[in-house]
Amino acid sequence: MEPPDARAGARRAPRLLVLALLLGAHPGAQAEVHLAVPSLVEVMKGEPVALNCTPQGAHDHFVLEWFLTDRSGVRHRLASAELQGSELQGTVHDSRGRSPPYQLDSRGRLVLTEAQVGDEQNYVCVVKAGAAGSAEATTRLHMFAKPEATEVSPNKGILSVVDDFAQEIATCNSRNGNPAPQITWYRNGQRLEVPMEVNSAGYMTSRTVREASGLQSLTSTLYLRLHKADRDASFHCSVRYHLPAGQHGHLDSPAFRLTLHYPTEHVHFWVDSPSTTEGWVREGDSVQLFCRGDGSPNPEYTFFRLQDKQEDVLKTNLEGNLTLEGVQRGQSGTYGCRVEDYDAAEDAELSKTLELRVAYLDPLELSTREELSLPLGNSTAVNCSVQGLPTPALRWTKDSIPLGNGPTLSLNSITFDSAGTYICEASMPTVPLLSRAQSFKLLVQGPPELRAEETQPRSEGSWREGDEVRLVCSARGYPEPKLSWSQLGGSPAEPAPGGQGWVSSSLTLKVTSALSRDGVSCEASNPHGNALHVFHFGSVAPQTSQAGVAVMAVAVSVGLLLLVVAAFYCMRRKGRPGCCRQGEKGAP
User: Fold this and answer.
1) Residue 355 CB contacts under 8 Å (≥ 6 apart), including other chains
2) What's the burial of 272, exposed, middle or buried (CB within 10 Å: 0-12/13-18/19+)?
3) pLDDT bracket for residue 45 (50, 70, 90)
4) What whole-number distance in Å separates Cα of residue 280 and Cα of residue 275?
5) Stretch 249-256: mean pLDDT, rounded?
6) CA 578, CA 198: separation in Å to the nearest integer?
7) pTM of the model
8) CA distance 178 to 246
9) Which residues, listed in sequence order, are joined to residue 304 by a DSSP beta bridge?
10) Sign (positive/negative) of CA torsion 24, 25, 26, 29?
C-alpha cells in the first residue's frame, strides 16, 4: 500500500510538467539569453571591421543569425551559425551584391573586410537557444571617410576697394568625405566670422552634394567687402572632418592673395644710387631716380625737370624709374615725378620733386713744375689750386706725414732733409669717394755732406799688424756726390739704408804700420764742392805669432851653445873622446 505523500506527489507531477511547458512558451523566457552587442561601431573607410554578437552564459546549443535592416524596416538574412558541440558552424546566405562578400568567423562575428559607404546600416543579431529562449540586438555601423586635399579657387580678377558691396573672394571645395565636413575661412590666420545670410559686409554660401559613391562633397564660397588694407592679406580655408571616437581632423588649403584696385593716396620720390647722406652724387656716375605711388595696379609715371619754372618731360613709364647715365655737373637741378591716377581723390598729392646735386672735382694745379730745384738754405712757397663742388679741403703731406692744411705750402731755410716728394691732396668730407692728388719733387742743391762710420779696434784698445777692417763712408748732396778712397778696393756708391738722399761706399783692407802713419781718406765731391774724411788707426802692434817665433829661435841657439861647451869640457879632461861615457868610474 503506497503512502499518502507518494500518491499526492504522483498526482502533482503532470501538473508541474504542463506548467513548465507553458512557461517555456511564454515570451518572458527570452530573458534567459543575454547578448553582448555594441549599439554603435565606428570604422574608417577601407578598414576591416567585425560586428560582435556573443551570447552570455553557458549554452549547449544555439542558433545565431545576422540580418540587415533596410530603410523600409525589412530584414534581410545575411548569415547564420549553429553551435554543435564545441564548434560553431557558420554559413553566409546572402551578401546582397557586396564585394568583397560578408564573412562569418569562428566566433560568430559578421566580418566586413573593407568598410564601404553602403555598409552604414543597422545589423540585427538573433540568437535562439531552444528551451533557454531567444534574444536579439541591433548594431549601427558608422563609416568615416577622410576627404581629399582641400582645394581653393581664388578670384583671379582685379577687385576694387571702391565698391560698397561684398564681392566674391574664393570658392573652397572638400570632396569625398563622410560625414559631410565643415569649412571655415581665415584672413591673416584669424578666423572670419561671416554669416550665411547675404549682406554688404560679407557672407558665405555652402552646398553639400552626395556623390555616386555615397561620399559627400562640400563647397563654400566667401564674399567680402574689401578695403585697401587687404592688399597684403593672406586668405585660406580650412576643412574640419570627423573621425571615430569623437576625434576631428583638419585640412587647410594653400594660402592666396588678391589683386586689388585702389587709388593712389601718397607718392614717394627719391635718389636710389649712388648718393650720399647729404644727397650728393658724383659726376660721371649713373644715377637712378625712383618714384612710387601706393595705388594699384601701378599707374603711369611722368618724370620731368624744372627749368625756369617750366616742366621739361624726360620720360613716362609704368616702372617708376629714371636713369641718368654719366651724370654731369650741368644736370644739377630740380627733378619731379607725377603719378597719372585718375581714380585718386581730388585732394591727393600726386606730384613730388627733389634737388639733384652733382659733386665734381677738377684736377689740381700747382704753382711749380713736377721738379723744383733750390739751393741749400733757400726758402719758397708752393700754391695748390682746385675747383670743385662742394668746396674741397686741401692738405699737404710728405712721406705720408701731414705737413698742414690749406692751399699754400711754405718751405723755409731748406736743408738736405727737405728734399723729397710733396703731395697736395683734395677731398670732400660729404662725398667720401671723390678725391684727387698732385705732387712735386724738391731737389736741394749744395756741396756734399759727408758722414763716416768709425771702426774701433777689436781688443785691448789698439790695432795689430794684419787686422782686417771695414770702412764705410756716406755722403749726400745734389747733384749726387761721387765717393773716392785713397786706397784701392772701394765699392761703388749705393743708396744708403734709411734714404734721405744718402749714398754710401765701403772699403775693406788689412791694417799695416804704413796705414797707421798715413791713414785712409774718403772724399765726396760734386760741382758745388767736396768734403774729406781721414780714418786713423793710431799705433799698430806687431802680430803675436811673429814674437813667438823669435823667442823659439833664441831658445834653440842657446841649447846648441851649451851642448858644444859640454863636449869641449869632456875632451879636455881625459884627452879622449869617450871620457864622458856613462860606464866610467872616478871623480870628475
Assistant:
1) 279, 333, 334, 335
2) exposed
3) very high
4) 6
5) 97
6) 166
7) 0.55
8) 14
9) 313, 336
10) positive
